[in-house]
């Protein structure tokens, strides 16, 4: 079909009446000429007209053919096909609903997964020209890491070097804080501290009022202003135009709202939706002046024509200068040059594009999401092949109708078109239903993705990519489900079909359906094996030894309200612990600087008095704790003693407790008790090792326990000189006697008023939260595996029932000749096996390949674990044979007389 | 009303070829084409006149001939068809196919 043809057809469809009249005129002219010929030959007018009409032939048939060629009929064809198809649907509503349900489920799952993938991995930030944004990450680290850390003085210096980039902005990672609007109860909202040019660099303009600008950076503490998000303004301020100027209070200050950010803007961290932005001048003065506290992250906009590497260059130089200066000032004399060189190497950075924003979700979820996409893709294929099989079966039943149509003169093209209309309409209806399914499924999926203690918020509105994807899905459905059945039917051989009534129900269809079914079985097996692998991984992880007892442990993050001097702070914390220990229902209570499974611990280079060979990287994890910490968490003390209250005083002798991994790494087989350790940098404070505890996993059930040094929190400055001692914030962990969930509210209430409770968590929840990915994969694969198994079972049942009906005659004869019902059953089951066995073999191969692909996500088992492969195959075989048993029994119990009589 | 026509029913492909050949020199309207084919073939091939028009329209859709309304010899408006460049090319192709076909048949008849 050429363009010209298409244009003519469109013209014919649109200007129907004109086209018709033109045709009539053409015919009329022709007849007139022919009449003239006869008149000239001597005939009278009426005779001439009669002869001319005879010569012309059937005008109606010529008209109809011209219409057909002209394409004017196209619209009426489509309309008629639609009418017919709708009637057919109404006649069998059960079938229609079933098919639409299956397709909608498959398409909806795909759409939901893709929109989450899109939101996390693919979308650009809703800012001006995101492709020219960049940030820096550690050169040797993962590009998905946050990176770009900087202190405030360093940021100001970097900003001045504007040769390679247009501008650089800084922000602190968004955090949840308690905010009071007016005089109401505090809400928990996401707040972000940003530099003055944050919005400028991003190219974002205020929806109302104004946004934070450079002039709000100048005087620290003088700009108590805030910009709020559009969502915040809509939900909390009720779209009120007088919102500008209303007050928010948090962090002991009152802020004026000066503007509202545009609707789509949520910050630069994908997975967080920021509600409030405040200027950097309002950050604590200590942080602003500290050039060693890398609490900010930077992001810049490149100048046109500059590469990312060029833009990152000045930043690398500045970091190098800073690090060299630091080493010069603080490295102990005699540190080997290669250690210094390696230290500097660690700080190398590289530039990466930042148009997509930053996301902790990407690192965690890019592979699992891809796997999920694969899983739902498989489910879609299974659903489509199921539907195709059903359509083929129904099509075969319509063979007689089709052949009659063909013999009456219908063109094969028209038949094909009409059959395709059916699957197209099904696809369109299913796609509409799928949109609803996806709408429900997407938030569910996002909820599954992230731990309940730190839920992610994502923007998943429809964009061009999503729309394109759903159209693609619809097209795929039409092609997969409708194309082949339609072609098969349209090619039907007229003569044999009409003559041979036994073939009315269509023989060739069964072979195709068996083929499809074998494919379905293979895909289902891949899913079931995947489910087994992921479920087993989850079980292995859950039952792995953490080194401590997380159940019954509750953790509260507390902040000291009034910051006094060191002695009074220490006293405050100490009396807090004493008081908490007197609460009923608690077995132990202690303090620590960080919680297990709540992020990476502090690592530091150290020196020891070990006389044996030093390890190549003398780095260990640090934890600052109070006495009774180990009993609270259930960590076993192996040798030596626990900390006592007396060890906490800053005047007391410096003591430390280490774990076995540490002893092994730094002391080989020797006993570390009595030996001394200190930090690597200058001004050593030699600390004696007085106890050895069991290893604990600190951040992930997969990673081995790191070497750990526990130090009383009163001595934190021996190791981190710039840290306040003790900190303003610490963690209180308690071990309860029974169920801790009820304890949580009670604890909140009873904490003395000098402390603010920032949050209460269960230790077990923190551990479980690290397993979200594994749980997601196990649940999804299992759920969809079960669905696929059901569909395959239904499919097999359908094909076998069909086959039994088809071969009724033959089976009837067999039974009449004396075959036992048992034999008939065996026959049906054998036929089923002929489909299942190749499917299973194919599935095993496919599963082997797929499991190899996901081996990084497995734990405690090999990707080709024979137990799981075998168990899955047996499960599948058993389940599907069960589905085939029903028609088998029916065949075996059939009355041979009825079977024979029924032709 | 359709009457059975005692004439040779020409295959669709050959009808196309005849139409293209007829339009080589001057544009003509439907009746002239039909007359011309009858003249040249010596009245042996009598085109079922009505079936000419679907063929003409099909050729028009293929882009091998182009149609225009103009005044005919009788004074009435008529649709004049003429060959396009691609139509000319198609004519050559069709002529060659026809020659090959007749040669093949001829060989079979001779040999058989």
Descriptors:
heterodimer, A: 903 residues, alpha+beta, six-stranded mixed β-barrel, B: 112 residues, three-stranded antiparallel sheet, disordered N terminus
Structure, explained:
The complex is a heterodimer of chains A (903) and B (112). Chain A has 903 residues and is α+β, with helices and mostly antiparallel strands. Chain A has a 6-stranded mixed beta barrel. In chain A, strands 15-16-21-18-20-19 form a 6-stranded mixed β-barrel. In chain A, strands 1, 2, 3, 11 and 12 form a 5-stranded antiparallel β-sheet that branches. In chain A, strand 8 and strand 9 (253-260) form a beta hairpin. In chain A, helix 13 runs parallel beside helix 25, helix 15 runs antiparallel to helix 16 and helix 18 crosses helix 27. Chain A is globular and about 135 Å long. With 112 residues, chain B is an alpha+beta fold. A 3-stranded antiparallel β-sheet of chain B has the order 1-3-2. Mean pLDDT of chain B is 80; it is low at 1-9. Chains A and B meet through helix 1, helix 2, helix 3 and helix 4 of A and helix 2, helix 3 and strand 3 of B.
């Amino acid at each position: 079909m050429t363009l010209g043809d298409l244009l003519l057809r469109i013209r014919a469809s649109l200007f129907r009446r004109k086209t018709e009249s033109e045709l009539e005129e053409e015919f009329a002219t022709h007849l007139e000429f022919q009449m003239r010929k006869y008149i000239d030959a001597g005939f009278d007018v009426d005779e001439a007209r009669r002869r001319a009409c005879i010569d012309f032939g059937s005008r109606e048939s010529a008209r109809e053919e011209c219409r057909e060629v002209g394409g004017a009929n196209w619209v009426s064809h489509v309309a008629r096909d639609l009418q017919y198809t709708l009637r057919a649907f109404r006649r069998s509503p059960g079938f229609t609903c079933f098919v639409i349900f299956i397709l909608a489920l498959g398409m909806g799952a795909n759409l939901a997964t893709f929109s989450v993938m899109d939101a996390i991995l693919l979308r650009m930030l809703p800012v001006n020209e995101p492709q020219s944004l960049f940030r820096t990450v550690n050169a040797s680290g993962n590009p998905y890491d946050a990176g770009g850390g900087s202190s405030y003085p360093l940021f100001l210096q970097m900003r001045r070097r504007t040769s390679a980039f247009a501008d650089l902005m800084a922000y602190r990672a968004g955090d949840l804080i308690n905010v009071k609007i007016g005089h109401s109860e505090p809400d928990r909202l996401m707040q972000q501290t940003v530099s003055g040019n944050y919005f400028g660099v991003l190219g974002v303009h205020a929806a109302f009022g104004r946004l934070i600008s450079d002039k709000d950076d100048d005087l620290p503490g003088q700009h108590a202003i805030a910009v709020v998000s559009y969502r915040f303004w809509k939900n909390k301020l009720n779209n009120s135009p007088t919102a500008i100027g209303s007050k928010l209070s948090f962090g002991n200050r009152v802020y004026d709202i000066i503007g509202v950010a545009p609707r789509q803007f949520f910050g630069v961290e994908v997975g967080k939706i920021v509600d409030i932005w405040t200027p950097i001048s309002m950050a604590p003065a200590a942080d602003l002046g500290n050039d060693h506290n890398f609490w900010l992250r930077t992001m810049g906009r490149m100048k046109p024509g500059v590469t990312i590497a060029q833009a990152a260059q000045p930043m690398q130089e500045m970091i190098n200068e800073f690090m060299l200066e630091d080493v010069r000032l603080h490295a102990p004399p005699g540190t080997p040059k290669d250690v210094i060189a390696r230290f500097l190497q660690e700080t190398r950075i590289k530039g990466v594009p930042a148009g997509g924003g930053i996301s902790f979700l990407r690192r965690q979820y890019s592979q699992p999401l891809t796997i999920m996409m694969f899983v739902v893709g498989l489910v879609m294929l299974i659903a489509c092949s199921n539907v195709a099989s059903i359509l083929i079966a129904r099509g075969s039943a319509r063979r007689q109708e089709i052949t009659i149509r063909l013999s009456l003169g219908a063109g094969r093209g028209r038949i094909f078109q009409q059959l395709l209309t059916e699957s197209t309409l099904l696809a369109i209806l299913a796609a509409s239903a799928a949109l609803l399914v996806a709408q429900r499924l997407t938030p569910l999926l996002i909820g599954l993705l992230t731990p309940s203690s730190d839920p992610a918020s994502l923007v998943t509105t429809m964009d061009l990519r999503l729309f394109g994807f759903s159209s693609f899905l619809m097209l795929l459905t039409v092609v997969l489900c409708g194309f082949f059945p339609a072609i098969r039917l349209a090619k039907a051989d007229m003569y044999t079909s009409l003559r041979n009534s036994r073939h009315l129900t269509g023989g060739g269809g069964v072979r195709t359906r068996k083929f499809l079914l074998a494919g379905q079985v293979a895909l289902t097996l891949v899913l079931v094996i995947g489910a087994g692998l992921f479920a087993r991984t989850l079980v292995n992880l859950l039952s792995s030894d953490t080194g401590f007892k997380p159940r019954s442990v509750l953790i509260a993050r507390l902040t000291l309200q009034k910051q006094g001097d060191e002695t009074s702070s220490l006293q405050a914390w100490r009396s807090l612990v004493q008081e908490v220990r007197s609460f009923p229902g608690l077995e132990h209570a202690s303090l620590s600087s960080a919680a297990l499974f709540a992020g990476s611990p502090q690592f530091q280079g150290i020196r020891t008095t070990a006389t044996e060979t030093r390890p190549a990287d003398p780095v260990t994890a640090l934890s600052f704790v109070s006495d009774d910490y180990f009993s609270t968490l259930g960590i076993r003390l192996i040798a030596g003693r626990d900390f006592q209250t007396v060890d906490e005083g800053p005047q007391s002798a410096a003591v430390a407790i280490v774990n076995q991994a540490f002893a092994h790494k730094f002391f080989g087989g020797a006993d570390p008790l009595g030996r001394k350790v200190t930090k690597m940098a200058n001004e050593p404070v030699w600390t004696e090792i007085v106890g050895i505890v069991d290893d604990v996993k600190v951040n992930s059930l997969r990673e081995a326990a790191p070497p750990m040094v526990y130090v009383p929190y009163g001595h934190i400055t021996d190791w981190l000189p710039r840290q306040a001692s003790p900190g303003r914030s610490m963690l209180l962990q308690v071990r309860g006697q029974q169920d801790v969930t009820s304890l949580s509210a009670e604890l909140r209430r009873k904490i003395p008023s000098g402390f603010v409770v920032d949050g209460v968590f269960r230790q077990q929840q923190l551990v479980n939260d690290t397993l979200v990915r594994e749980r997601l994969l196990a649940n999804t694969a299992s759920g969809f595996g079960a669905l696929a198994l059901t569909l395959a079972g239904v499919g097999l049942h359908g094909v076998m029932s069909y086959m039994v009906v088809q071969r009724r005659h033959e089976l009837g004869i067999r039974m009449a000749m004396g075959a036992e019902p048992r034999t008939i059953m065996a026959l049906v089951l054998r036929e089923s096996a002929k489909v299942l066995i190749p499917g299973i073999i194919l599935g095993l191969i496919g599963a082997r390949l797929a499991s190899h692909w996901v081996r990084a996500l497995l734990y405690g088992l090999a990707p080709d674990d024979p137990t799981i492969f075998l168990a899955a195959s047996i499960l599948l075989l058993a389940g599907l044979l069960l589905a085939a048993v029903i028609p088998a029994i029916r065949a075996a119990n059939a009355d041979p007389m009825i079977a024979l009589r029924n032709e | 009303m359709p009457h059975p026509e005692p004439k040779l029913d020409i295959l669709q492909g050959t009808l196309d070829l005849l139409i293209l050949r007829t339009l080589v020199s001057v544009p003509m309207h439907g009746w002239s084409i039909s007359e011309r084919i009858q003249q040249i073939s010596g009245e042996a091939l009598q085109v079922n006149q009505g079936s000419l028009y679907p063929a003409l329209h099909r050729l028009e859709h293929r882009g091998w001939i182009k149609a225009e309304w103009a005044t005919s010899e009788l004074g009435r408006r008529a649709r004049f068809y003429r060959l396009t460049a691609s139509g000319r090319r198609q004519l050559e192709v069709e002529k060659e196919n026809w020659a090959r076909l007749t040669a093949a048949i001829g060989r079979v008849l001779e040999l058989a």
